[in-house]
Amino acid sequence: MSVLNQDNGFSTSSQDRHNRTLQLHDEHKKIEYAASEMTEDTFRDLWKRGYPFVIRGADKLEEKIWRPNYFIEHYGDKDCTVIDVKENVEYKMDVKTFFKGFEDISSRFVNKAGICPCLKLKDWPPADDFAETFPEHYKDFYNSLPFKEYTTRSGVLNLAHRLPLEINRPDLGPKMYNAYGSEDNVGGKGTTNLHLDMTDAVNMMAYAPSVENRLEEERDKTAAAVWDLYHPADLPRVRRFLRKIAKEHGLSINHPIHDQCFYLDKELRSRLASEEGVTGWRVFQNPGDVVFVPAGCAHQVCNYTSCVKAAVDFVSPEGVARSYVV
User: Fold this and answer.
1) Which CATH architecture has domain 24-325?
2) Is pLDDT above 50 for 19?
3) What's the pLDDT tens digit per position in 35-83?
């Protein structure tokens, strides 16, 4: 089985992989950058190592078109499917119903049990082309993307657009990810379960309410969202740990990460560190922050408050080998 090596991210044995992972973490601890200090050389250096990173204050989005009221006004009568992040139950509703509860809990949808579920509207639009459904947002998003030669559809270093026309190309987005606030403490279910993608991705937070305008129970967190990310070289140990957790709970799983059936709360993250020596990275995200996630980098997300995000996938020369392994 191929794993990470010195030059491109791939080596030959479990011990080599473990040693290389430690060396990588020691060599390059910094993964948070201001927009003014992130250079193309820094990007490429991080990317070839399989390192995620965040650029603070990188976007130049026109905030007003990403606000809940804008979606209510322009798309409110459109139907959508939302998911209860705690119970993994789907509900059908119109866009207006979802966004009215974005910052006003008294306006939230109530299910048959009399509960206001924590909802997310993911991969929006689910099937239609983003550029056709949201032309204003599409233009605004692409104008704001860093490293356009990698991240845009026509970027010369985005290998996705070089696929032969006869191949059924995957939908790389962009897509929007909109969700209410959740929690990541013991027993917390987060917003997006641990998973990984075969392509590289860039995620931009377009909108979140300011701390003073959040729900009262959300004001103890200054960040709008938190990401937990794990280097591709750590995946065997993460999988082993998750299989152990599944066995403890009597769960039958095929692939502990691809099945997207786990969110690692505070207790499980602590156990992963103590039992497998895997700590990963915690990255906090606010409006204006852009998170880059390499192919094969397992990650999960918890919104601390309601957030609007947009993301797009791409295929970089540095990430092709990792994409192949995934």
Assistant:
1) Sandwich (2.60)
2) no
3) 999 999 999 999 999 999 999 998 789 999 999 999 999 999 999 999 9
CA distances from 126 to 20, 130, 205, 298 (A): 39, 9, 19, 22
| pLDDT tens-place string over residues 132-172 | 999 999 999 999 999 999 999 889 999 988 776 666 666 78
CA 245 – CA 297 distance, rounded (Å): 20
pTM for the model: 0.87
Task: Give DSSP secondary structure letters for 259-300.
Answer: TT-----HHHHHHHHHHH----EEEEE-TT-EEEE-TT-EEE
Cβ 131 vs Cβ 138: under 8 Å: yes
For residue 156, how far is the Cα from the chain centroid?
24
